[in-house]
């Protein structure tokens, strides 16, 4: 029976991963301990994850997790505002990092297209301008 996973990381890769760094930085022994702790205290985990990921907030959040209306209606990072495109793309376009690959597409036929952060930034802005020309504005879904 074949595995559903296309790639299995090597022990060296795992040891040098962001996940391993996060586990060590927060005094945890292993992934299992992280998994248990994050399930027991999701606010603890997500606040640390947001900080570790260097999420930039346009407006800081007041509370990581608000379950005052019950768990099914939990609200995350209440009061906070962020710009997703700024966090995942814009901030990576300056300096030498702008020439690093942000996105690699591989087609069924084996064709490959690579986009640097700067190239992807230009494509995203081209798409945003096209939507704007059609009357799509901030807050539209």
Any overview of this molecule?
The structure is a single chain. With 141 residues, the chain is α+β, with helices and mostly antiparallel strands. The protein is 40% helix and 17% strand. The chain is built from six helices and six strands. The strands form three sheets. Strands 1-4 form a two-stranded antiparallel ribbon. The chain has a two-stranded antiparallel ribbon with strand order 2-3. Strand 2 and strand 3 form a beta hairpin. Helix 3 crosses helix 4. The N and C termini lie far apart (43 Å).
What are the salient characteristics of this protein?
141 residues, alpha+beta
CA-based gyration radius = 20 Å
End-to-end C-alpha gap: 43 Å
How helical, in percent, are the residues? Answer: 25-40%
Q: What characterizes the major β-sheet?
A: 2 strands, antiparallel
Number of strands: 6
| Quaternary structure annotation | single chain
Write the layout of secondary structure elements.
Elements: H1 11-15, H2 18-25, H3 31-40, H4 42-52, E1 57-59, E2 63-66, E3 75-78, E4 81-82, H5 84-88, E5 101-106, E6 112-116, H6 117-133
Helix pairs in contact: 3-4
Quick recap:
The chain has 141 residues and is of the alpha+beta class.
């Amino acid at each position: 029976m074949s595995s559903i996973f296309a790639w299995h990381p090597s022990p060296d890769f795992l040891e040098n991963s962001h996940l391993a760094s996060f586990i060590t930085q927060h005094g945890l022994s292993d992934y299992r301990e992280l998994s248990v702790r994050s399930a027991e205290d999701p606010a603890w985990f997500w606040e640390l994850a947001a900080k570790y990921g260097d999420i930039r907030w346009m407006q800081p959040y007041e509370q990581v997790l608000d379950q005052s209306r019950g768990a099914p209606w939990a609200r995350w990072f209440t009061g906070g505002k962020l710009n997703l495109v700024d966090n995942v793309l814009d901030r990576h376009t300056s300096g030498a990092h702008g020439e690093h690959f942000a996105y690699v597409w591989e087609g069924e036929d084996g064709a490959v297209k690579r986009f640097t952060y700067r190239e992807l930034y230009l494509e995203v802005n081209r798409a945003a301008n096209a939507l704007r020309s059609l009357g799509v504005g901030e807050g539209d879904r």
